[in-house]
Specification:
CATH class of the largest domain: Alpha Beta
Structural class: alpha/beta
Number of strands: 19
Number of helices: 13
Strand order of the largest sheet: 5-4-17-16-15-6-7-13-14
Shape: globular
Helix content: 25-40%
Bound molecules: iron/sulfur cluster
């Protein structure tokens, strides 16, 4: 089989200096990092972002491929994976923590093998997809928000924890594309327990906090729609806020010259949260009739946005697509990875997790193949484990940003010589 492009081991020991590096460790893909390669690995030089530092500076150990926990040559592992896929009734390709080329290779293999594709973060992504599919929305981009917004409403999402530099880069920037001294901005946190510490600095005017339960934000937004349209509603408690607070929020949204409602789908983790996203989308549309207002969805960690984009342009559908019938078949409930595992409709899980050790597969007794970053926190021994590199650290790559408008190239920082998931998957497909 001779997969000569793959190997395991540390990268070069030569020192290196990289500027304008794109960071693949969360969906906003900051592209301004300075990274040095020092004696014992990579060092992030110009940001204290904990997620970036943990991602780049993690020591990647020399891990061989394994079958049933025993080290084997890579070609043997690939041959074993191919045999398992050949004999599988319905293989599920899950996790999908990889880059654009990696997802392309997954799609090709799933098509060839008659499998199902689903990302680890699909449940969160579908809070958005359902709204996009049913009613549409008006979204802005990171760049537009950074340069034009005068009001940010953070909707029930702990943005600072998920994306530690969002405020620094998009909200608190002291200059904009259009002015050296742009007007101050208002930031409103709608929800409880949200970290507000990053909404600070000369660019920030008022910071308001409207604490309420996340699963009642939809109720507040529906009331806001009614108030904005002049429809009478009863006074009193609205989703945990007073009528005066909700009136004030509506007034501020309508008075803004470019308001943005920001959410991160993984934070809206309660039943029927897509209805909250829908309420945001509908309110945004209403305000747009008289002013400029937009939504901005973050999230998209672990290559989730790239997986959704590639699946859509290759199959015509977002994730949760089955190729078992020989053509793409889409069903958001039927082809959910967790349901297929729980109902034992699949007999083989191929899990891909290239970025962090924390993207762990669901607990299952279904036989499992893992293409993962070394150190992945597995609870059991998979049938086959093949170590793969992290795009943007161990090899070059491409990722789609969370606002879906830009694909950013990722540099090869030579952290290790681990193979690309795309190359391993292509070798598996050739062997199948
Ligand atoms: S905020 Fe996200 S993309 Fe930016 S440096 Fe931190 S982890 Fe990387």
């Amino acid at each position: 089989m001779g997969v000569s492009m793959v190997g395991t081991g540390p990268g070069t020991s030569a020192k290196g200096h990289y500027e304008n590096v794109a960071c693949p460790f969360c969906g906003i893909l900051c592209d301004d990092l300075t990274i040095d390669r020092v004696a014992d690995g990579l060092k992030v030089m110009n940001t204290g972002c904990e997620i970036a530092r943990a991602g780049f500076e993690r020591r990647v150990t020399d891990t061989p491929a394994q079958i049933d926990g025993k080290s084997v040559p890579l070609d043997d592992a690939i041959a074993e994976v191919a045999a398992l896929i050949r004999s599988s009734r319905l293989p599920v390709f899950g996790g999908l923590g990889t880059d654009v080329d990696g997802v392309r290779a997954v799609m090709s293999l799933a098509d060839h093998a008659g499998g199902v594709v689903d990302h680890a973060l699909s449940e969160a992504q579908y809070r958005n997809f359902r709204v996009l599919q049913s009613g549409g929305w008006v979204l802005t981009t990171l760049t537009e928000a950074r340069n034009r917004a005068d009001l940010f409403v953070i909707v029930g999402s702990d943005v600072h924890a998920l994306h530690p530099r969002f405020f620094e880069r998009i909200v608190c920037n002291e200059k904009s594309m259009f002015s050296e001294q742009p007007a101050k901005r208002t930031v409103i946190f709608l929800g409880e327990g949200l970290d507000q510490s990053a909404a600070t600095g000369p660019r920030i005017g008022e910071v308001l906090s409207l604490p309420c339960k996340a699963d009642r934000i939809g109720e507040i937004l529906v009331a806001m729609r009614a108030i904005a349209k002049g429809v009478p509603i009863a006074d009193g408690d609205i989703g945990g806020l007073s009528r005066a607070q909700v009136d004030d929020l509506v007034k501020r949204c309508k008075a803004s010259s470019y308001g943005v409602m920001v959410w991160a789908p993984p934070s809206l983790n309660f039943p029927n949260a897509d209805l909250t996203v829908q309420a945001v989308a509908e309110f945004v549309k209403d305000v747009n009739l008289t002013s400029r207002f937009a939504g901005l969805s973050l999230g998209g960690n672990d290559g989730a946005v790239s997986a959704g984009a590639v699946c859509a342009w290759q199959s015509g559908f977002p994730l949760r697509v089955s190729f078992a019938s020989g053509k793409p078949d889409y069903d958001v409930e039927r082809y959910a990875m967790t349901r297929l595992l729980a109902d034992k409709e699949t007999d083989l899980l191929i899990w891909i997790a290239s970025y962090t050790p924390d993207l762990v597969p669901p607990v299952t007794d279904t036989p499992m193949i893992v293409l993962g970053t070394p150190g992945l926190k597995l609870t059991g021994t998979p049938r086959v484990f093949i170590p793969v590199g992290t795009p943007g650290a161990d090899h070059a790559g491409l990722l789609v940003r969370c606002d879906n408008v830009v694909s950013l190239p990722l540099k090869n920082l030579l952290r290790s010589t681990l193979p690309r998931a795309a190359d391993v998957l292509a070798a598996i497909e050739a062997a199948v």
